[in-house]
Amino acid sequence: MIVVTGAVGFIGSQLIEKLNNENFNDIIAVDNFDREDKNKNIAGLKISKRIDRDQFINWLDLNGQKVEFIFHIGAKTDTTLFDVELLTKMNTEYTKSVWKLCIKHQIPLVYASSAATYGLGEFGYDDNEEEIPKLKPLNPYGQSKQDFDVWALEQDKKPLFWVGLKFFNVYGPNEYHKGRMASVVWHAYNQIKNTDAMKLFRSHNPEFKDGEQMRDFVYVKDVVDVCLWLMHHRKDSGIYNLGSGKARTFLDLTKAVFKAMDKPEDISFIDTPEDIRDKYQYFTEANMSKLVSIGYNKKFHTLEEGVDDYISKFLI
Questions:
Q1: N or C: which end of the chain has fewer CB within 10 A?
Q2: Active-site annotation holds for 166
Q3: What is the topology classification, in CATH, of domain 2-171+217-245+285-301?
C-alpha cells in the first residue's frame, strides 16, 4: 500500500497517476471527498481505498504495518487565510500525527512543505537545515509549514526515511479548483481565452519594473518525478527545495501562455490588491544543489516547455 494524502487535489492526483503509470496500483487515497468537481481528478485512476482525512489517523494507527510509503501532500494551502488555529490544526498538528505513526510503524514519509516558509527571502532560498529556524514566513499558511519543519528537525526520533519538500510555484493539470490560489498560468490562460488580453500586477517595489517580479515556476510533472525518485531512493533524509532552480518573470510566463495559445500579446497592469501588497514576494528561486547532490539528475522543464505542454495537452 502507498498512501497519498490530498489525493483529489492538484499535486496529489497527479502523483497517483504517476504511481499508476509505474504499476503502483494499491493506492490509499486520503482527502475530503465532498467536492464532486475535485473528485474527477482521480476518476479512472487505480485506487484501492478512499479514506476521509478526518478518519485517516485512526486508520493509519490500525493499518500502518501494511503501508509501504506515505506521501503526505494534503494541506490547507490558502495563503490569504488568517485562521491560525485552523492552519495549525490542519497543517502542523496533523502532520505531527502522521510523523509519529510513521515512526511507530516504520513507514518512509515524504511530506509537503512550502517555499512560503522563506518569506521575503531575506535569508536566501537555500535548504540548509541549520538556517531553517531563522526563516520568517509572511502569512499564517507559511508559518504553519515552517512550524512543522522546525519541529521535525528538532526531533530525536524520526521516521526511517523522511523528506520535507519545499514546493515553489507549482503549475499544471488539475489545479482548476484552487480559485485564487491556482497558478498564474491557469489564470492567464482563462483571462486570455475570455478577453484576448492579460492584466498583471503592477510593481510596488522600485527595484522591479512592472511585470518583472520573479518566481520559481515549476511544472507539476517535474514535482511528481522527484517524489517518485525519493520513494525509490530512500536515503539522505531531510528538507529539500523543489523548484525549477530558475527564477522567471511574470512577463516571461504571460508571453509563453500567449504563444502556447497562438494569440497576439496584449498585456497591461493593475495595482496589486492591498490585502496582499505588504506580503508580496518579488523574487523566489530555489537553490536545487542539495537535491542534485544526492543523485537527482533528471532535467526539469523550462517555463516555456511546461506552459506549452500544460496548455496544448490539457487546456485547449
A1: C
A2: no
A3: Rossmann fold (3.40.50)
